Fold this protein.
Amino acid sequence: MGTKSRILIASICLLAATSAQASVIKINNIVANWSDAVLTNGAAATVSSIGHEPGETKVVWGAGSAQSNYTFYSPASGQFNTEQAFIIGKFTQANKFVSGNDLDKAYLNFNVNLSVDGAASESKTFSYLFDRTTGASGSALVEIFNQPSPNFFTLGGNAYTLVLNGVSGYNTPASTSVSIGSQQSKGYYLSASFTQLPTSVPEPSSWILMLFGLSVVVLRKRSLRKIK
């Protein structure tokens, strides 16, 4: 095998190793807030940024002392690979048997200051729907929905999105739905991950296959020349 052939095959191996590396996303800061909280009668629920922890955000509904609420607190920061699940914060719900109208839905929003692979930091906003269904006994089912555009950002020529995998307890898998009984309060970890979105640009694996095919053709031609 000639020197040029070795260089070509080495280049292909290097490209394969590079394409296998996940992008590293650094979270510098997260500011969370609830918005568009709506009761079952269409009225707005109370949204508050006053909580037990700095940066905690809360939705409250119900009359008098029998009030239910959602709270969220996010201390998340650090570096994460794409597709790597991490705890973005803690979601807590207090489910009281309230008089009047119950909560129908609310949106949890993250304003995230981040950078990808050492690029300049940017602030991006992501929103997620928390849909609530209340049973006759006062129990409730909460379902979490990842929202489509504009929940993505582009850095370094690649598009990424922040996906909520769901809520989980200690050593339990994440779920996008959770139920709670009447007169109960529960706290959950909220799991998330960064996912690179597909683009119209050929994937690195496609380039690797094309280069490999080209190298086979070149080597075949050279071997035929030597035989002649």
